[in-house]
């Protein structure tokens, strides 16, 4: 199984990857607009992928980011600092995956399975929540909204963070803030116990992790065993020579 990370944004991003076992790509790398990167995690791999924005790193990989920073280095050994949109995976015979906005939102992010068996729905949020972020959750840099924080991150209350007496699915319920996220992105985690509509399963498949990819884009492709594999519509095929001759000359035959 592979996953391909795609940058469909108009800006460079710096994906971070942390794992419970094997580290991929050193934990972080640069991905320019239009670029992709493909990885083959081992069986049982579990981890998270997110995009850092507004970063500046020197030749030694030291620097800063506006959002999603995992310290002061290009490579990550710890999760990114909120707010950040996160893709989460647990690979196995059946792979569990989701996109979480529990730590806030900094980039549109979707996960699309390729040729899988099972539920295999698209997970995530193709909408840019920064455009309609509640003012009290807005995360700004140089006066510009660059991310949307979670209510937990802003207020740090038991109710918003699902902790204390709210640390269970019975007492921790959606809030007005999490509903803003869920309404815009119904297939993403909006709060800690949003499992029923957010965790998706799929087996024997590849995945495409897309930053800034619109949800109405019906085809996503990855590369597996040196071939291009896509979901949705099949690859277009060239028109055969005989069919082209038929199309061009049939009107002439009719007139005769």
Automatic annotation (TrEMBL):
Keyword Cytoplasm on this protein?
A: no
Q: Does the keyword Magnesium apply?
A: no
Cystine links in this protein are 9-212, 55-65, 70-76, 120-202, 125-185, 133-148, 152-161, 162-172
Supply the PROSITE patterns for this chain: THAUMATIN_2 (PS51367)
Which keywords does UniProt give here? Disulfide bond
Top-rank taxon, per record: Eukaryota
Pfam families given for it?
Thaumatin (PF00314)
Q: Which InterPro entries match?
A: Osmotin/thaumatin-like_sf, Thaumatin
> Which sequence ranges form a coiled-coil region, renumbered to this chain?
none
Cross-referenced PANTHER family, in alphabetical order?
OS03G0233200 PROTEIN (PTHR31048)
Q: Which family does it belong to?
A: Belongs to the thaumatin family.
Put simply, this protein is called Thaumatin
